[in-house]
């Protein structure tokens, strides 16, 4: 089985996908005139603009939903893996795929907004399957994506997050992985079988503050090793381009692992971001595109960089050549993963580091598992529009619990290999789709900027822009002032699986 998975990964993560991710990011950066730079101030402003409604969440809630999926084990264990197999230069390529990928995230998230719809319960649903069907007119391709996403986010990816939680708890407090597996499975079961509201409220508050605390701890560690900062930055850049002799053997691997782990972490182009993006209540799809582009920055340029700086400034990392020899052996015999970051924090804060990282990893990774469930469940909702098989959701619940349990007790290598299959499969399918159906997202950006330049509050009129099948956005003829007012309703519901309280939604 391991050999089959490795062979599959070899095909999926061939150099073609590596350079496709970079190339598509560069292409969309040019097509959007580098909106990720021009629109930085607008991204910040829009995060706090919209309100929730009966059908959807606010822009900030959609951002936190997205971050709960993006900020996970990839930010801690994934960075360590990238450095181990790609050297310090892999960090540069993680930055590069994030910078370019922000424009990709804009395109896919705006498409998710344009083609969203309401389900039987009156809640917003959207994502690649929806815009593939409505914009491409290819239902068979939409079904392939939906099924692939259910498999990836419901069965392949959760095991990676669970494995890192179990490893972190074992390193910090010696908790047996089987005990962690039982605890995580019970808690997850409680959530997805009916208690999501309370945990989602908790995650909405905890994840942003936990990410901030994590970045602050990293800043303290880097400050205490400030003399290492210039040489560390130089090492990252020189290793990325083969100018550091010691890492010449892993030059090609730096690009491969930097892009691979960068996409795994920030998910730009993978097709996961459009699911929570579609849940936002906004007056114009481009607004949520801006916000979701910023989430890529938070994930990689902030949180992943925090991990990388901690590892490199303290020397708590290993680098392994393709032939298996050790180029750097800062942690002899330690398996790559959260233990690297725990060791880095321990060098400065003895007795605190392992526990802090284990706690951060638990919140990051567990909320990611919940976000994965929401994405898989959204694609089941897409399938159920036609076939109406309610038992599919029940099977998904059992499947994700089984996957989490297996991921905890199995080796980290196997969990990551399965996760890579899921990420790569979704990325191939989604990137091809957004290249084909990109035009509505680009038209929406131009329309938004034109209205802003005219001093108007942008509203979206798909018929005026020549965009078809955006049925949710079609407005009856009426007062222009009414049309320019966001279509908000009493705020008390959000998408299934990520609810918040009525009070939180109104706030």
From TrEMBL:
Bilayer topology: Multi-pass membrane protein
UniProtKB keywords: Cell inner membrane, Cell membrane, Membrane, Symport, Transmembrane, Transmembrane helix, Transport
Gene3D superfamilies: Amino acid/polyamine transporter I (1.20.1740.10)
Transmembrane segments: 12-30, 140-160, 172-193, 205-226, 232-255, 296-317, 356-374, 394-415, 421-437
Subcellular location: Cell inner membrane; Cell membrane
Keyword Ligase in record: no
Chief subcellular location: membrane
Heme listed as a keyword: no
Protein name, UniProt field: Amino acid carrier protein
UniProt lineage: Bacteria, Pseudomonadati, Pseudomonadota, Betaproteobacteria, Rhodocyclales
């Amino acid at each position: 089985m391991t050999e089959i998975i490795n062979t599959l990964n070899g095909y999926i993560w061939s150099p073609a996908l590596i350079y496709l991710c970079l190339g598509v990011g560069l292409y969309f950066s040019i097509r959007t005139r580098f909106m990720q730079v021009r629109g930085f101030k607008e991204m910040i402003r829009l995060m706090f603009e919209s309100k929730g409604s009966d059908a959807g969440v606010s822009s900030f809630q959609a951002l936190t939903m997205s971050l709960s999926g993006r900020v996970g084990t990839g930010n801690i264990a994934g960075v360590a893996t990238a450095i181990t197999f790609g050297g310090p230069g892999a960090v540069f390529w993680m930055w590069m795929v994030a910078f370019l990928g922000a424009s990709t995230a804009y395109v896919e998230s705006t498409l998710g907004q344009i083609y969203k719809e309401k389900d039987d319960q009156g809640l917003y649903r959207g994502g690649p399957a929806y815009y593939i069907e409505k914009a491409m007119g290819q239902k068979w391709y939409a079904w392939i994506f939906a099924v692939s996403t259910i498999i990836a986010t419901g069965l392949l990816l959760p095991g990676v997050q669970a494995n890192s939680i179990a490893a972190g708890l074992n390193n910090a407090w010696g908790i047996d992985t089987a005990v962690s597996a039982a605890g995580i499975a019970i808690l997850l079961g409680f959530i997805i079988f009916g208690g999501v509201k309370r945990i989602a409220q908790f995650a909405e508050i905890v994840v942003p503050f936990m990410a901030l605390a994590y970045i602050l701890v990293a800043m303290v560690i880097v400050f205490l090793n400030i003399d290492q900062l210039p040489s560390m930055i130089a090492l990252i850049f020189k290793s990325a381009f083969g100018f550091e002799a010691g890492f010449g053997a892993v030059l090609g691997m730096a690009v491969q692992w930097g892009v691979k782990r960068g996409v795994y972490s920030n998910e730009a182009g993978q097709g996961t971001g459009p699911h929570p993006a579609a849940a936002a209540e906004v007056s114009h799809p481009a607004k949520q595109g801006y916000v979701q582009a910023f989430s890529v920055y938070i994930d990689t340029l902030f949180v992943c960089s925090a991990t990388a700086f901690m590892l490199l400034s303290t020397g708590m990392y290993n680098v392994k050549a393709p032939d298996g020899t050790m180029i750097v052996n800062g942690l002899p015999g330690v398996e790559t993963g959260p233990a690297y970051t725990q060791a880095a924090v321990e060098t400065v804060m003895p007795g605190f580091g392992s526990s802090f990282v284990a706690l951060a990893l638990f919140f990051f990774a567990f909320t990611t598992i919940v976000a994965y469930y929401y994405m898989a469940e959204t694609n089941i909702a897409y399938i159920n529009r036609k076939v109406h098989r309610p038992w599919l959701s029940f099977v998904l619940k059992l499947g994700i619990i089984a996957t989490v349990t297996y991921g905890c007790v199995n080796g980290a290598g196997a969990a990551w290999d399965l996760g890579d299959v899921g990420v790569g499969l979704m990325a191939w399918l989604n990137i091809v789709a957004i290249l084909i159906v990109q035009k509505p997202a680009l038209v929406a950006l131009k329309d938004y900027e034109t209205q802003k330049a005219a001093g108007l509050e942008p509203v979206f009129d798909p018929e005026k822009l020549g965009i078809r099948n955006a049925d949710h956005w079609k407005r009856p003829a009426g007062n222009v002032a009414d049309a320019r007012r966001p279509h908000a309703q009493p705020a008390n519901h959000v998408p299934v699986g990520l609810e918040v309280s009525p009070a939180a939604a109104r706030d």
